Amino acid sequence: MKIEILGTGCAKCQALEENTKQALAELGGFHQVEKVDDLVKIMEYGVMNTPGLVVDGEVKSTGKLLNKQEILEFLK
Questions:
Q1: Helix 11-27 and helix 68-75: axis angle, to 10°?
Q2: What is the DSSP secondary-structure string of 26-63?
Q3: How much is the average pLDDT of 17-29?
Q4: Measured between alpha carbons, how far is 70 from 74 in angstroms, rounded to an integer?
Q5: What CA–CA distance (Å, rounded) separates 68 from 59?
Q6: Is residue 11 within 8 Å of 18, Cβ to Cβ?
Q7: Residue 76 has pLDDT above 90, yes or no
Q8: How many CB atoms lie within 10 A of CB 31?
Q9: What distances in angstroms separate CA 75 from CA 48, 57, 65, one per listed residue?
Q10: Any idea which architecture 2-75 has in CATH?
C-alpha cells in the first residue's frame, strides 16, 4: 500500500504524517509512506486544502487533521 501525505510542512501536515505512521504501526505489514510537498504535484490530485491523505493514488481526505482511528478506517 502506498500512502502519500500532501502538504507544505505546516504543523497539521506534520501531525497527519505522525498520526499516519502510528496507524500503520498498529495495522502492521509493509507500507510505503511518502511526503509530497511540491505544490504542482499536490494540485495534480485536485487538492486545494492541505493536509491531504492519498492511499494507493486515491485522495481520501483534504484539509483535515485526521486522528489515528480515522486513518485506520481509510486503510482497511
A1: 60
A2: HH-S--EEEEE--HHHHHHTT--SS-EEEETTEEEEES
A3: 93
A4: 7
A5: 17
A6: no
A7: no
A8: 16
A9: 22, 13, 16
A10: 3-Layer(aba) Sandwich (3.40)
Residue 59 — pLDDT band, cuts 50, 70, 90?
very high
C-alpha of 25 from chain center: 15
CB count within 10 Å of CB 70 equals: 15
Sheet architecture: strand order including 32-36: 32-36, 2-6, 52-55, 58-62
- Positions annotated as catalytic residues are 10, 13
Kindly indicate the confidence band of residue 44, based on its pLDDT and cuts at 50, 70 and 90: very high
Question: Which residue do the cell numbers 492519498 mark?
Answer: 54
Cβ atoms of 18 and 73 within 8 Å: the answer is no
